[in-house]
Amino acid sequence: MEIIENRPEKLILRMNANLPLANAIRRSVAEVSVLAIDDVEIYKNDSALYDEVLAHRIGLIPLKTEKKMSGKTKIEFKLSKKGPCTVYSGDLRGPADIVYEKIPITILGDEHKLELVATATLGKGIAHAKYLPGICYYRYLLEIKSSPLVDKIIQGSKGAIKAEKKGSKWICDSNGNNWKKVPNLTTKDIELTDDELVTNFLKSIKNL
Description:
The chain is of the alpha+beta class. 19% of the residues lie in helices and 32% in strands. The protein contains four helices and eleven strands.
């Protein structure tokens, strides 16, 4: 396994894995326990948003999850604002950290008020998307036979994985490359561990 990029908000790995394993890793992200707002009690809402819409927006605000938290963890946030103003995620006050404090929740007009109490609990993405720690997906790399036109397209592409040339073939990320410009591209020019993927890839080119 090779780490291509490792930042607080982004991780790119390169590994030899078949599609069932890659998909299992993708699905496993939904099994990670994450802190999110699960219950909202609204006492005053003069904004243009219905209570249900407001509660939904608040539930999607990312919160920082600590290792010491458990299934019994309940964290209470309070929000009290008076317009005219824009209400942001950072206006929620509680013992847990808000990851992004400048997420707009709603707008309050003159003399409008918003008062609520929100309770956050631990949950998993298999129950609701608000508990997902992030988005996980995979791409497959292609081995494509080199030619002057293919070389030009690959060298000008900006895939997540930097293209590598080995002998007469390129190993590259298929996303972002304009393969429609390559005439008569066939399965003989592309190699993958799964022939079905090659066929599907060629179909997607023809549908561009």
